[in-house]
Amino acid sequence: MTSYKDKIQISVAGEELSASIVTNDIANNFFAHRRSGRMALFLFGLIFLAGIVAFITKAMDGFDSSQRANWGYFAALFAFLLSAAGSAPLVAVGFRMTANHWRRPFARISEIYAVVGLLTIVCLMPLLALLPPIGDCSSGPCRKTLWFTSEYWGVPTFWDFAGLLALVVCGIALLLVSALPDIAQISALSESKSRPLLSKLTKFWTGTQSQWHIHRISLSLLGGFYFILLIGVQTIINVDYVMSLVPGWKDSILPAHQALTGIQAGVASVVIVAFIARTFGGYKKYFPMESFWSISKILLALSLLWAYFWFAEVNTLWYGRMPVEQNILKLVMFESYRLPFALNFSMNFLLPFFILLWNPIRKSVIGPTVASILIVVGSFFMMVRLYVPAFGIQDVTAFQITYVPAAIYPDFLDLIMIAGGISGAVFIYLLSTRIIPILSLWEVKEGLLYQRVRPFLRGEYQVLGKPK
Amino acid sequence: MYEGKTYSNKQINDDLLSSLTKSSLVYWAIVGTLGLIVLVATVAVAFMINKGLGVTGLNRPVMWGFFITNFVFWIGISHAGVMLSAILRLSKAEWRRPATRAAEVLTIFSLMTAVLMPLIHSGRPWRLVYWVMFPYDFQRGIWMDIRSPLVWDPAAVNTYLTSSILFVFVALIPDIAIIRDRSSGIKKIVYSVLSLGWRGTTRQWKFQAIAGILLSALILPVFVSVHSIVSWDFGMAIAVKSWHSTIFAPYFVIGAVHSGVSGVVSVMILMRWLFGWQNYVRHEHIDALGRLLLVIAIAWFYFLLMEFMFGIYGQEGDELATRHMQLLEPPWMWFFIVFIITAFLFPVPMWLFRRVRRNLWLMLITTISVNIGMWLERLLIIVPGLARKQVFTGTWYTYAPSIIEITIIGGTFAMVLMLFLLFAKIFPLIPLFDIKEGQVLQDKIKVGKAEIPAVIREE
């Protein structure tokens, strides 16, 4: 053990922090309802409302599986929200498991995304009604399905819904368990009317050693369960709402590719919120460059992995020269939907790769943020090029598609619905940050315990604790 | 988390170079036995070449059997080297230090063995000269048909082998210099040449570190491409429906990592026992590798599920027949049961427990079990796929290996182990400089009343 007098410091040059400073700082920021925040909430709420109106207007034209083609963009919106917001909590789950210190400021930002799951449940409900029946192959036309037969109870709609519901419940439970110590502390500091309610809800939390032990185990279990559920739900949603609607499309990597795109978009969404919180939210000192630097490496790796999965798919389908596979490639990539594909490919791989390839850019705040914005937009276009053509196929029971269907373009109502849906997600997120602090108090403070700065000659070096 | 004692640089040199300087009877007994098995396998190869492929169990329609299974298996094992060394080096995982060299060396020897398999499988290995130097076999033009994955394959494997050798060599230079300084006579001359004038100056260390990072980053795409291309040997073939799957490339890569990292854990435990490196290969390292294996195994299982699910999803006759053969027809169904138990159901639940991950015997058993399963996995992909090709419905058949094939396969396992052990006689199997660097970066901090291990952050 060294005889140096250790300094406790978070990695922002020169500034020493203590647990009490962090608590007061974050609590003050949390209680300060800025005018810009209220304006943003109002604006996104308004667009969300417009989206709901657009949805109702469109639904009045009819709503059954024969009109599926009209709802392709809505399905893409749902898939995008599920992928990006649903995958975001994995940042906290994954890097908490690997005990990375740099994840601490990102953890709560990522967990709050679980609340957006409520919106995805609402979006899934109408889509369940649009799904064509599987049919009975022994007595008439049927389509290929992941469930193999319609004989089992509730396939596929009930299981899709149940899977998503379980995912959202698990995500929200993860958020609440994680935020419990913070809510307890914040409620103790609050002077508003909501204090008695919050105090009542969290009064059992006194921060004993056994409570922290249970807290840690609960987070690990919920995190592991969330990860498994997320991959499972993405897989069944992808197969039920994309592949099984396009006759002859057998693409075993596609569900995994959608899940990977979701993880990529989830990480990117966290970076975007972190940038906003750092730049406009008054939390600059809690987002050291190291955090952005580390997460940008993850983004770079995910971009490369995205390209690899894409290449594995295209190479296998293209090389075989089978007519049905050629038609599918033309449909979702090279002919009908080549524009969304080009945007998807550029924004999920090419541009982020060339941006994040350079260390000085990775080691900045703006570089990873720009790459993240591109990734999120690109992920939306991936869902467009998958879900819109799939919803456009009329004869889902054919043996295989023998032609390349034309592209379906969005109408005005589709555009309003998309804007409304995305704004709805932002609106729900902003509302949640009024109840739960956007920075994980206990994790940031725990991070302080494990960081030391020690003198070396005329300089200093940092030591990171690695507990069991 | 650092659980070991701290040693002086001299002590580290003495301990880790003991494999070069001291020889136990057990060591030579093992090397001798392995050498004997290799000799028998070589005789079997010679016999097969003399008599022709008729002495094997290969026959229409199953023309790929044990040899190609073994080729894919050894390519898979070779993935551990880069996985552990490059990725963990780039991510600055402290626990990588005692594992990297063994992993890299295992990569090289398993790749060399893998390369031999298609040559042996061809039955006429001398024709390699024609393939490389003359357009003898290719009637469609004067060049080889580069559109065939069978041509991409040797290109990728040889690139991987070359870059892996370079990767190991760059990391070996500082250690070779230490051996040079401790040896005399002809040995000193040889090690002097190999150490490239290493004096350990700041400038040399800087270049060595940069070369290591660059090679780590450059070798990663090669590592992914190799097993992807091996998978495309199968996946590009539309005639064998169960092979034509888009998930094959990542499925093969993650399977390779699963089997390769398991292989590294096995050899690390054996190394610790054989050379008495208890202070260097510690429980914490095996524990960390166990946790890594847990994640890899779960990811691999997801890909396995996808591969099987989409095999049945298409509802195509020959694919269903293949799956029927794999799952319901003996002996393949028994192989499948053994495969799924040994590769996943037995080891993975065990790895969930810290006690198991820190029990070396159990880790040795579970990691060997994984590789038994992963070898069977490749066999189950190759043989039933070929045995149920639609265009050859009239000749649907099965495959049983001959004693010649079994002997040769046994020989390859002996060869890899023997080369690994012989390497330990020439170069250290644990990087000396890495262990020393790890010790320099170790620290402790006080949190409340407790003192916890810490690490100095590198920029």
Question: Any chance you could write out the topology, listing elements then pairs?
Answer:
The complex is a heterodimer of chains A (468) and B (459).
Chain A: H1 19-31, H2 35-59, H3 72-87, H4 89-97, H5 104-112, H6 117-130, H7 157-189, H8 195-202, H9 209-241, H10 254-280, H11 289-320, H12 323-334, H13 338-356, H14 359-362, H15 366-392, H16 412-432, H17 441-449, E1 451-456, E2 459-465
Antiparallel strand pairs in A: 1-2
Helix pairs in contact in A: 1-17, 2-16, 3-6, 3-9, 3-10, 3-15, 3-16, 4-5, 4-9, 5-10, 6-7, 7-8, 7-9, 9-10, 10-11, 10-15, 11-13, 11-15, 12-13, 13-15
Chain B: H1 9-16, H2 18-21, H3 25-51, H4 66-77, H5 79-90, H6 100-122, H7 127-133, H8 149-182, H9 185-194, H10 202-235, H11 248-275, H12 283-313, H13 317-328, H14 332-345, H15 347-351, H16 354-357, H17 360-387, H18 403-426, H19 432-441, E1 442-447, E2 450-456
Antiparallel strand pairs in B: 1-2
Helix pairs in contact in B: 3-18, 4-6, 4-11, 4-17, 5-6, 5-10, 5-11, 6-8, 6-18, 8-9, 8-10, 10-11, 11-12, 11-17, 13-14, 13-17, 14-17
Architecture overview:
Chain A has one domain (34-450). In chain A, helix 2 packs antiparallel against helix 16, helix 3 (72-87) packs antiparallel against helix 9 (209-241) and helix 4 (89-97) packs antiparallel against helix 5 (104-112). A two-stranded antiparallel sheet of chain A has the order 1-2. Chain A contains 17 helices and two strands. Chain A is mainly α and 468 residues long. Chain B is mainly α and 459 residues long. Helix content of chain B is 71%, strand content 3%. In chain B, helix 3 (25-51) packs across helix 18 and helix 6 (100-122) crosses helix 8 (149-182). The longest helix of chain B is centred in the middle third of the chain and has 34 residues, at 149-182. Classes of the chains: A mainly alpha (468), B mainly alpha (459). The A-B interface holds A 1-2, 6, 144-146, 148, 231, 235, 239, 250-256, 308-309, 312-313, 315-317, 319-322, 449-450, 452, 461-468 and B 1-2, 94, 224, 228, 232, 235-236, 238, 244-250, 302-303, 306-307, 309-310, 312-315, 443-447, 451-457.
